[in-house]
Amino acid sequence: MTIVDDYIRLHPASAKLYEESARVFPSGVTHDIRYVTPFPIFVERASGSRKWDADGNEIIDYVMGHGALFMGHAHPTITQAIVEQAPLGTHYGSNHRGEIEWGSLVKDLVPSAEEIRFTSSGTEATLMALRLARAYAGRDKVLKFDHHFHGWHDYVAGGRAPEAEGPTSPGVPAATTSNTVSVPQGDIQAVEERLEQGDVAAVILEPTGASWGKLPLPRQFLADLRVACTHNNTVLIFDEVVTGFRVSPGGTQARFGVIPDLTTLAKILAGGMPGGAVCGKKEVVSLIEFRDGDWNARNRIQHPGTFNANPVSAAAGSEMLRLVRSGEHHTYADGLNARLVKGMNRAIGDAGIPGAVYGLASYFHITLGKEVPQPTGGVEWPVSTPPPGMTAPVQAGLKRAMLNHGIDLMGGAGGFVSGVHTADDIDQTIAGLGSAIRAMQTDEVL
Ligand code: PMP
User: Fold this and answer.
1) pLDDT tens digits, residue range 392-406?
2) Looking at the chain, which terminus has fewer C-beta neighbours within 10 angstroms, N or C?
3) Is 246 in the pocket of ligand 1 (CB under 6 A)?
4) pTM of whole model > 0.70?
5) Same domain, 96 and 210
6) Total number of domains constituting the chain
7) Backbone φ, ψ for residue 290 (5° rounding)
8) Are 360 and 418 in the same domain?
């Protein structure tokens, strides 16, 4: 039995649903990362750290709502907040108390957040952050880093691979692409040289490194960027869509003590409902505000958005941020994550194959089939080393092999530990990785 044979045997109902799905959606999926061959699983319900698929398989989940579910699936008090709000109305088309509470919690937690504007997603948040920065600086160019992801709008689309000129994607006008410059992460000299040309409005980055720390960034780089941006009047944007409220209750900026001018947020922010935000220095965010004279017609940045700060997202998000605020769930989740990372490294060592797992706070990334050093302190990546990462066949093989053992990984390469995973989940996952590696060795994927 190969991994794929096993996968097909264990998931007949999902296979059937996929036939229907493929008639409705491109490649039968509604988000790129959910594309799995020969077919993805279909999930019917979820609770805590677990979800159950259409075939009744119980799965320990590390996708966790693409990182949104810091307190697991259907958390009782977050669910209660949603259930209590829904009958009171899901959209008032008016201001409401819930949004003040939600915004105030963001302001309390995120050091850079002097003023906030809610959006409906992380993509909308980075779109608005870049527009605010361009308007504030009076310059067109933005600088991003190779492999860093900021959503799918035109300013950043296609920006995952290294780009010589700028990110490219079919459908994005060349004029737009030409205003986005991408350089390798960690190279402060390249950044300084580019900023000194005086035409860069903003530097945007994932502050723990590309793909939520898959390519970890030397911490000093954040401090160096802060100095370079201030020196060149360039707006520094931390895209904390994934890391916000996760790397610490106040995100990466609170943990590492480097404060950006603007911050983008989503995922954990909205408690498992749709929602995002851009926040930061008042003098930048206030370009959205109404003023006297011809400011509104000439200088103001418009920001409508039907579902901005809708009452249900506000209710779920506020409850999530109240849970985040104490920090106790971080201590717990980070501890479990360290146990998971160390245990997975033991499993890889026992199997005698090249690879390593490393993490930060409550996320982890897996590299198999490639010589990489063991992480510092058993958990964190030793930064000045070759980049981690897996070949596409190894990653796809791992995703399927882990699902065969009742474990779902984000893209097959890592995941998120929540405040409701248990030590038992972690130990089952470590054993599952050992079994998955053996299956991959039998299949000669590894
Ligand atoms: N920025 C980062 C760092 C992200 O990881 C993501 C989504 N994974 C986004 C922006 C886009 O957020 P959304 O999917 O909510 O549009």
Assistant:
1) 999 999 999 999 999
2) N
3) no
4) yes
5) yes
6) 2
7) -80, 135
8) yes
Ligand 1 in reach of 151 Cβ (< 6 A): yes
pLDDT digits (tens, 9 = 90+) for 156-195: 986 555 555 555 788 888 888 889 998 989 999 999 999 9
Residues 390 and 398: beta-carbon distance below 8 Å? yes
Helices 311-325 and 76-85: crossing angle in degrees, nearest 10, is 150
Query: Mean pLDDT by 10-residue block, N- to C-terminus, for the chain (446 residues)?
Result: 97 98 97 93 98 98 98 98 98 98 98 98 98 98 93 81 62 89 91 97 97 91 98 98 98 98 98 98 98 95 97 98 97 98 96 95 96 83 74 95 98 94 98 98 95
* 266 in contact with ligand 1, CB cutoff 6 A: yes
The verdict on 279 and 154 lying in the same domain is yes
Give the domain-ending residue among 298, 324, 350. Answer: 324
Are residues 7 and 17 in contact, defined by beta-carbon separation less than 8 angstroms? no
Report the CATH number that the domain containing residue 386 is assigned in CATH.
Answer: 3.90.1150.10
What CATH number is associated with residue 85? 3.40.640.10
Domain's final residue, options 291, 324, 357: 324
Range of the domain at 396: 3-73+327-442
**Same domain flag for 105 and 47:** no
* Mutate-to-test residue for ligand 1 from 150, 273, 278, highest number of ligand atoms within 8 A of CB: 150
- Kindly state whether residues 249 and 107 are assigned to the same domain: yes
CA Rg, the chain, in Å? 22
Claim to verify: residue 84 and residue 66 sit in the same structural domain: no
Same domain, yes or no, for 427 and 287? no
Ligand 1: nearest atom to the Cα of 266:
15
244 in contact with ligand 1, CB cutoff 6 A: no
